[in-house]
Structure formats: C-alpha cells, structure tokens
Fold this protein.
Amino acid sequence: MTNRIKKTQVINAKPLVEHKISKEERDQLTETLLTAPATALANGEVVAFPTETVYGLGANINCPEAVDEIFSIKGRPNDNPLIVHVGTKEAIKPLVQSFPEVAEVLVEELMPGPLTLVLPRSDIVPDNVTAGLDTVGIRMPNHPVTRQLLILADVPVAAPSANLSGKPSPTLAEHVVHDLQGKVNFIVDGGPCQVGVESTVLDLSSGPPLILRPGGVTASSILRCLENHHIQFPQRDWQIRLLHSGSGYSVADHEVPKSPGMKYRHYAPDGIVKIIEGNDRSECITNILKFINESNIKDNFYGIFANQEFIDEVKARLPGETNLIQYSYGPVPDIRKATHELFAGLRFLDEHSAKWIFVETFPDQGIGTAYMNRLLKASGDTSNRTE
Ligand code: AMP
Ligand code: MG
C-alpha cells in the first residue's frame, strides 16, 4: 500500500507568507489553498508542509497507518520518536500528563517558535509516535501557512523533517519534491524556511531543563527567559548545565539524557563532508590545499560551502582549477546566513557530484551550536551527545 506511486500535488501557498495581502484576501486564499491538504491530514494522509525550521512530513497522531507511513516513506528507524506539532497553545495540555511552571513560561514566551518541549505524555499520544517512550516532544511552528494548516486540520500532527532518512533536511519545497515526489499526495510550498536547521529539543520531563538537540532557539535565550520569570531548580549549577547541554562538549556523558534518534547518521550528503579547520582564514585555506594535494581528490569534482570572500581566496590559491564547485551562502562570514543555507548548500553540492565537500566552521556558541552540531553529524560523527 505504502509503496504505490502517488500523484503528488504541489500547492503554491507562498502568497500566504506575503505581508501585503488584506485579511479578507488571506482568509479566502487560506481556504482555497489549504482546505484540501488539511482535510487529507485529518483523514489519515501524509502531507509535507513548510515550517520556520525545515519542511516537515506530517500525519494525524490518531491514524496509526499514517504514522507508520511516515517511517516507511522516509526509511526512518522505528525507535526514533516523532515530534507532535500543534496549531494553538491550547492544544498542548491534552497531550501531556503534567505541565510544570517551566513549560508554562516557555510556551508563553518562546512559542510559536523553533523549540520542542519534551514532557511526560498523556494517554492520547500513541506508542508509535513516541517510539514507546513515556515522554512526548511538542512544538508549535511559527509559520503562517503551517499554523493555518494545523488549525484547519484540527488534530495533533506527528512530523519529522520531510527528507529521506539520513539526508540533509529540506529547506525549500523543491528539496521535498526531489526526495518525496510520488510518495505523498500533497506538498505545501511556503517558500524558503527562515531558520534552516531543526528546532531545539528541550527535555523538561525530569530534573532541570536540558537541551537534547541544539536548534533554532539558543540555550542563552532559554536561560534568560527562565531567569526573567525567576524559575529555579534545586540542583546545583543547573544554569551552567543548561547552557552547555546543547553543545555536547562540556557535559559529562552520564549527565546527558538520551535523545533517541541522535545516534543515527544525520543530515549527510552523498559527498564526504570535511570540516574546515584552522586558527584563522589563512590556516584554514592552507589546510584545504594540503588535503587536496595529499589525496587524489583533484581527479574528481569537489565542493566548498563558505562565504564568498573565503571561496575567492581558495580559488586564488588554486589557479586554473576547474573541478572545484562552490556554494557561497553570502559575501562575508555570517552564522545566521550560513545556518539558513547549510542544508541547501549540501544538497546543491551533491547534485553537482562533489565527492568531497569542505564546509566552513563557526564558534560553538549561540546559533553556531546548532550549525556545528549538524555539521558534525553530516561529517559522520555520531559520537557526541548521545548513545
Ligand atoms: P527529527 O528526526 O528531525 O524528526 O527530530 C526529532 C528528534 O527529536 C528525534 O530524533 C529525537 O532526538 C527528538 N525527540 C522527539 N521526541 C522525543 C522524546 N519524546 N524524547 C526525547 N527526544 C525526542
Ligand atoms: Mg530529520
């Protein structure tokens, strides 16, 4: 059943993201564009949709076959839990067994947004959504199209990223079409995702909050929010643990709660990702050239994801080179732009048959923590942070 080829309909919902249209026009367009995919979602079909982080592949949590289909379409291991997406704050409480004050504050301040809260699940959340865990990850996306879609569907929607398992997540509808054409009935196109990496997964199910996966919301903004509301935890140094929990470098292994799924190879293009290392730009470039000269990579296409200034300098030191394929995310170093473009860049370089892909690094702080996490996973490192 799940392997039958489907006639994929791509719905252009980009006009709904534009600010210029009037409320009447928006309401009319919402109904015209989103009624069909919302009804399909509610009735147990799998639908791909945009969010502010990456594109998602959603199913009504009450339709076990649809949830199973997500796993089969993606080739996703069954022990990797799905995040449940809701369109309103009111829809969160029925999904959880308890709703501590810390969750109340974070929902109020940071949702909708790129934040997933892990809480003890209620009986209405099925086993196949949480991979049998007694907790559930919940998120309310901050994207006008998705919120309307979720409100119209009026059901909680389990959704991982809308890519084939292990590959870079999609940040454009074109990426979803590339991976899932013929496998889903609807792909809703809401234009480019603003953030470009997945949500921050924050565990509130036991003890002080800890980041299981760094993402669009930084550790310091979570901490600031808790401090503003005078939220305290009995454990010593809980603030420091929270701040370091997303980076994977500073918290001892035994202190890190398990984040199922992070053990798998993730975000990886076909080409081999090489993290560019060095104390400054010149050293980074020297290291790239050294690698190129010492290995036989010059006989193949190879790629670089970096800022234009950096790429220009590499090219200046490789006169006449034609096998180098470039993806520049912007004119100068800029962590937000690099994060926004990372997955699109890896996909582009794959499509151009780059056998090796050199990628610029950023300091492991702020949004850089999420960027470096994805980069490490893309390079095949599954050791940090989890199992
Ligand atoms: P994705 O693989 O992009 O769908 O992201 C979902 C990730 O969120 C999973 O791989 C888990 O690491 C994490 N996650 C979801 N639900 C839970 C949960 N109940 N407990 C812990 N981590 C979770
Ligand atoms: Mg994913």
Remarks:
- Residues 160-161, 169 surround magnesium ion (ligand 2) (CB under 6 Å).
- Residues 249-256, 383-387 have pLDDT under 50 and may be disordered.
- DSSP finds twelve helices and 14 strands in the chain.
